[in-house]
Structure of DUF983 domain-containing protein:
Amino acid sequence: MQQSPPRSRITPLVRGLRGRCPNCGSRGIFASLNELHESCPTCRFSFVREEGYWVGAMTVIFALVLIFFGLWFIGGMLLTWPDVPWNPLLYGGLVLNGIVPFLLYGWSKSIWVGLDLTFFPARLEEFRPAED
Ligand SMILES: [Zn+2]
């Protein structure tokens, strides 16, 4: 088991935002675009901390959709003011809302684990035993 001491209280969140293991900061936690490995290949921290754990990641992906839609819509308005192309902004935003959850769900999981570890640090029993 390996656990890098967090540099600050929000270090796990920053690591999760960077797509790294929120516990140790190592890379390679993604099994695919939308899946994390069961545990970190480096520190063995188990990412699923309890039953129904990824509901939190769904909350994060909802926030990401809102952020990306807001950036698209408000950015589009500011860049084209006063002749705002409302329909392309709206339809582009709807397409964005449909695509973002599929592209960023894995990232939302690492963010969620980081957010959770920020407030509830890892416990010893949450590390998988090393395989011999
Ligand atoms: Zn790790």
